[in-house]
Structure formats: structure tokens, C-alpha cells
Amino acid sequence: MSEVTEPTEQVPTPWLRRGRVAGTWAMRVGLALIGALIAVLLFARISAPIGPFDASLAIRPGSGGAEVAVPPLGSLAVDAFDGPLRLDIRLESVDQVRAEALANDPVRLAGVVDRVTEDLQDAVVKLVVITVLVALAGAALVTWVVLRRRREPLIAAGLTGALLLGVAGVGVGTWRPEALATPTYTGLLVNANSLIGSAQDIAARFDAYRASLEDLVANVGSLYSTLSALPPPGSADQTVALLHVSDLHLNPSGFDLVRQVATQFRVDGVLDTGDITDWGSPPENRLIASVGTLGVPYVYVRGNHDSAATAALIAAQPNATVLDDSAVEIAGISVVGARDPRFTPDKSTGDDDAGPEVLVRSGERLADVVADMDETPDVALVHDPNQAPPLDGEVPLILAGHTHDRAVSELDGGTLLMVQGSTGGAGLRALQGEFPEPLTCTVLYFAADTGRLQAYDEITLGGLGESEVTIERIVVPPAEDEEDGEDDEDGAAEEDGAAEEEGEDGATEDDDEGS
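RESULT FIELD:
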């Protein structure tokens, strides 16, 4: 009778055991994340009073930063930190009782910023605590429901807590307070200047705008409490605002955009870097006459699509100046400019194949004009960016167009080159592409006393069939030599003051001895 052998139990290999352990922990992490995410999406939201208005706050999955929604005016986004979570603040309504109390009490109105700061801090702390508790509870509950083991909810809560600590560490480590000075606005153009704030104020109080997110929300609170009647921008002797447009290509919507921005942002003048038409023909030139009705100086250089007749028509408009290796001054800001030496409305013409050397020579001629001037101009206008290199180091700022692609770069010599997109959305060419080309323009803010570019607003309007506008505020930090110069001036002033005081003391002693 043969023996029956018992089947031997297979002993798992070390690699198999490690794989099982890794799979178990991967499942635990996945369940904890799913549970925490579901709980945060459903329950991590609070309502809180912030100054004169009621708001809702939530933490949502995102790419970091914060967004303040102000229906129906639009929203402000601030890229203040990185991470997988975003702080959402939505201003729901104005509390009539609190708003009237502020309006009727000047003392309380003066302290509205401090009140908003305190309210926001309390609300954010409360939201963070609730979010953490909700995430821990959600992770533990989902894990228990799926695995049905007593210790698994505790493990899930521990994993979620470690994850939240990591997210908090990333946020703190990537905190960028300077981003608070450069919010991105999305909404209707007519409300943009109100929500994004005054560049004059930002240039004058740069440190205040860097302080904290509370300042941004306080500005929105002031907007609500005063029913959008914001105080006027800084006086003309502090900041000069100039609007840079280019490549309108005879798009009526582009001309409307120029008019609206010039009025809404109260600019002191318009700088046009060319291609205002497509062919430079007399029928096209009829629309150009509208530049004379803007009510502000209009400075223009010819593009490669503009004819001599186009330039002559613009020069005949009120307040308009055509630069051709020449200079002009707007509100104390010195501007030089040179036309594109080519005229190529038809790409089949030979002039378009002239080569970059023609553009370089044009830039060199303008550099000679700059060299002959008594003082360095503040801005140079050219149409094609290839005209810019000879001017590098000769002027602090060059404006150009032609490429229909907005770009800002610093050249080797320290000159800032700002290439505008197409303010006309490339004109009729916008109908040829699959997606409409946006309409772009930029409001530049200069210090009236020095002519230095302090900040600029990049305005982008959706192309054909789109109505959304985006405005991004960029603050230009002063150059290192300017900061050193300011420090030297302050030190010299202190030394002069001390010397003057010592001289006065000495004179007093001499007088006493003489008497």
C-alpha cells in the first residue's frame, strides 16, 4: 500500500513578501487619499463675515495660490504659493447693516482694513482646522468601510496627517509675498481697474502690497462698501500711464479696445508700434481718423504694412505724432522712434526678402539719434524686434510689435525689450486660424520724476466671439544701481544734516562767547 504524501505549503520568497507589503501600503495610501479628498470637497467650506460683506472660504485641489471671486465683477488670482491645494474666497453679499454702520461712522471706516485683516485671519484658521479634521475623518471612514479592520482607520489618519504636514511644508517653503503685488484679473474690462487696483498706489506703496493677502481682500472690501466709487488714481506728478498698442491691422474691435482702455485707465498717451493697417490703402485709412478723437497724445511709428499715406493721415490727426528717427515728449516721458524700413503688405514683394541687415541699419540710425540727444530718452519705439539690438544699452526700454506674440525680455546691455501681441487680433487674419487670436495691449506706468518704468498691466481680450478679459499686473523692481543711489543719497542727506546741525551749534557757541 503506497503512502499518501501531504502537499507541502509553498514558502513565499522575500521578494514576494516585500511585494505584498508594498501593495498593502499602496492600498492604504490610496484609500486614505480618496477618503480625504471626498471629505474635503464635500465639507471643507465655511461661511464667515469679513468686514462689511459675507464670504465663503474653501480649500480645493489646485496648483496652489489663492483666488478671490467677486461676483459679478470678476475674480483675482494670486500665485502666492505652490502645492496641490488652493484657497478659494468668494464674496457672497454685502451685509447692509455693517455697510451702513461703516458709512456712517468715519472712525470705523478708517479701521476697516484692520477689521478685514482680523476677520480673514480668523476665518482662514477656522477653515484650516475644519479641513484637517474633515480630511482625517474621511480617510479613516473610507478605509474602515473597505478594509473592516480596527487598526486601519488609525493608520489612514496617520498617513493623511503626514500628507497634510507635507502640503503645509511645501506651502510655507514656496511662500511668495511679492506675488501679492501681481494679481491676475479675470472678468469684464470695465471693472478691471477697480478690482486690480491703481498702479500708482502699487508703485508708491510696493512694500504694503507685499505685506499679506489681507491687503488684497481689504481692497475688494473697500470696493463693495463704496459701491465701486473708488478714489481717483495718483496725481499726474507722481505717475505717467502710457498705453502700448501694436498691429491693429484695421480691426474695429481693436480700435474700440484702445478707446476703452485709454478711458478706463486714464492714460496720458498712446504708443503705437505700427501695422495699423493691412495694405496701407486709402479705403483702409478712413478708420484711422478715430485716433484723433481719443483726447490724448498718440505717438506712432510705421510698420511694414503701413504706407507713407497712412503715416501722413495719422500725422494730420489732432494730438498725433509720427516718429521717423525723431523724438517727442509725453507728460515728461521722452520717446524716440523709427519706422520699419520695409513696406511689405504683399508677402510676394521683394522688400520682404531684404534681410535682417536692413532692420539692423534702421536701429543703428535711431541709436545715432539717441547719441545726439542731450539726455537719454525713456522709451524707444520700433516695429520689428530686429531693430532693437543696436539700441541695447542706449535706452532703458524698447517697445516693438510685428510678431503678434507678446514677450518681455532683458537684452545683454540691460535694456528691457517689450514686444506687443496684436491689439487687433491680427485683423481679418483672425478668421483664418482654428482659434481666434486674442487682442492684447499693455498699460505702462512710469515715474514722472525719473521716467523709470515702475509697473505694467498686460491686458488680453478674447478673440473673435470671446468676451473675457485677463489683466496681469507686473511690478518692475528698481535696478541695483538705483537702490544703491537712493541709499547713498539718504546717507549724504544724513551727513549734511549732521554737519549743518554741528555748524549751527558751533555758531551758537561762538555767539555766546562773543556776547
